[in-house]
DNA sequence: CTAAGGCTTCGAGCGCGCTTGAAAGCAAGC
DNA sequence: GCTTGCTTTCAAGCGCGCTCGAAGCCTTAG
């Protein structure tokens, strides 16, 4: 029962875009709100779009994770490409990938296609890590469900 | 397809114990390896059983999360009860619950049944948090799957 | 009796990922 | 020209959750 509930929640979470449309989403822009205008975004706009602070965006640049262009006055200009990368970075950070690993990965990306095998390996490792993490979360979720059931007077049993 | 794979992974993760047996697991001991012997465990044994360091166990005690008894020489003795609590704590920590929240919760537990509504609330909040986190991990997992597919030469479409 | 290896307490240190603050430049409205 | 509010760089600080090291006590084997 708890397991079933978990699955239903996962389904609800990733259902909207039917499985085959997911690829298109990734390819196109990773996030519908980004492609709308092709105009580069200021650091504040970019921050708002990806849900980070301007400070964090500057920090990411300093760490070499993203390289927005600059306008005549030295202001940052985040292109759709930069925003896509930021979405990727955010997703990976939220899933627990470390800054160190993201730096390594980004470096490989900038070195061109010859590093694809290395990048693939990193993604496979992340995939494993995330899968383990989901397993752990499943256990924790069941534990909260159990406690709540007990607090509600374990109506079954 | 990615979604289906995700669900299958979740299923594989929490399948062994059939849904209805999960409650029993929680009630009995949370972890089969613990109940075997009723003898209290030393800090090192307890650490090994729950997968933490002895340093961390002492730290948790210092923070009031667990209260193992002491033997004549002042050594810690972790009972089955203490170990159960440690498993709970570990599970919650791994799911991202903060030390602060765990301290609050533990304090409520030690204040007796009158705090059950508060505890229930905390568990409901955690349940929400974990569910959101699983959603995020789902996105990240799809992203790694997408990248890997691309690196493999996107054999489909 | 001694040596090895557990255990104790205490306080300081650390790694990660930001976060904040200071000082100053640029843009747009009044 | 002045003000308001964005932007820049740089360096220092911080909160969390451990993690480590020192100094000394207890227990068991030889």
Main beta sheet of chain A, described?
A: 2 strands, antiparallel
Helix content of chain A: 55-70%
Across the major sheet of chain A, the strand order is 1-2
Structural class of chain A: mainly alpha
Low-confidence stretches of chain A: 3-28
Q: What characteristic shape of chain A results from the CA principal axes?
A: flat
CATH topology of the largest domain in chain A: Multidrug-efflux Transporter Regulator, Chain: A, Domain 2
End-to-end C-alpha gap of chain A: 13 Å
Strand content of chain A: under 5%
**Largest interface, C-beta closer than 8 angstroms, per-chain residues:** A-B, 53 and 53 residues
CATH architecture of the largest domain in chain A: Orthogonal Bundle
Keywords (chains A, B): DNA-binding
InterPro entries (chains A, B): DNA-bd_dom_put_sf (IPR009061), MerR-type_HTH_dom (IPR000551), MerR_fam (IPR047057)
Organism (chains A, B): Plantactinospora alkalitolerans
Domain HTH merR-type (chains A, B): 42-108
């Amino acid at each position: 029962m708890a397991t079933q509930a978990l699955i239903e929640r996962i389904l609800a979470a990733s259902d909207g875009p039917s499985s085959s449309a997911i690829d298109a989403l990734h390819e196109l822009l990773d996030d519908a709100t980004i492609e709308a205008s092709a105009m580069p975004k200021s650091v504040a706009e970019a921050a708002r779009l990806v849900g980070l602070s301007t400070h964090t965006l500057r920090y990411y640049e300093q760490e070499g994770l993203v390289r927005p262009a600059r306008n005549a006055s030295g202001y940052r200009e985040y292109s759709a490409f930069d925003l896509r990368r930021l979405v990727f970075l955010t997703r990976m950070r939220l899933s627990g990938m470390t800054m160190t690993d993201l730096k390594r990965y980004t470096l490989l990306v900038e070195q061109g296609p010859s590093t694809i095998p290395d990048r693939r390996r990193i993604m496979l490792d992340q995939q494993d890590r995330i899968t383990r993490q989901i397993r752990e979360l499943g256990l924790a979720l069941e534990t909260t469900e159990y406690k709540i059931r007990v607090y509600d007077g374990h109506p079954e049993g």
